[in-house]
Write a structure and sequence with these properties.
Family: Belongs to the acetyltransferase family.
Largest sheet: 5 strands, mixed
Distance between the termini: 49 Å
Helix content: 25-40%
Shape: globular
Order of helices and strands: EHHEEEHEHH
Strand order of the largest sheet: 1-2-3-4-5
Organism: Actinopolymorpha rutila
Keywords: Acyltransferase, Transferase
Protein name: GNAT superfamily N-acetyltransferase
Number of domains: 1
CATH topology: Aminopeptidase
Number of helices: 5
Number of strands: 5
CATH class: Alpha Beta
Structural class: alpha+beta
Strand content: 15-25%
Radius of gyration: 17 Å
GO molecular function: N-acetyltransferase activity
């Protein structure tokens, strides 16, 4: 039975989720890198232009499909946690999976099962839709989260290294 504290995100949750994402960035020691706005998040979650700031022209204006999905955790009517995710695809398995971009529960609400409830909701999405995987990244130094993930049966992909292009390198490679 689904945890009643967890549900799909609503438009009315956008501002609260943006605050949570900024709190996560601070926790990950990367506040300066987080430029997410409510307009960005609303466009990504509910359609319209996604994949950058709303005025970036990142997608054609007729592409109104959401590119991002989310669940939130509530306590006493307040959004105190979130899971932001999108679809990936396993060519080896021949089916989609979920990539968890962000999972965050405010510190004062941790140890109450909300993180597990959010991950359970995503696992339920995978099972219901026939997806093969639920994947995410975690910072090497984040031992509390690593321990938590291992307790759920998640395993690290030891032989894989994440690569990323951003800023000038992305612009140069993209011909901009």
């Amino acid at each position: 039975m689904p945890d009643p504290r967890v549900r799909r995100v609503r438009r009315s949750d956008v501002d609260a989720v943006v605050k949570l994402v900024h709190e996560l960035a601070a926790y990950e020691r990367a506040s300066d890198d987080c430029t997410l706005t409510s307009e960005d998040l609303e466009a990504a979650l509910f359609g319209g232009q996604a994949g950058g700031h709303a005025d970036s022209g990142a997608l054609p204006s007729d592409d109104a499909r959401p590119a991002l999905f989310a669940h939130v955790a509530e306590v006493a009517g307040e959004v105190v946690g979130c899971a932001l995710w999108f679809l990936n695809f396993s060519t080896w398995r021949g089916t989609h999976g979920i990539y968890l971009e962000d999972l965050f529960v405010r510190p004062q609400h941790r140890q109450a099962g909300l993180g597990k409830a959010l991950l359970t909701a995503l696992a339920e999405e995978c099972v219901r839709r026939g997806y093969a995987r639920l994947e995410w990244s975690v910072l090497d130094w984040n031992e509390p989260s690593i321990g938590f993930y291992r307790s759920l049966g998640a395993v690290p992909m030891e032989e894989w290294t994440v690569f990323r292009l951003t800023d000038d390198a992305l612009t140069v490679l993209g011909g901009g």
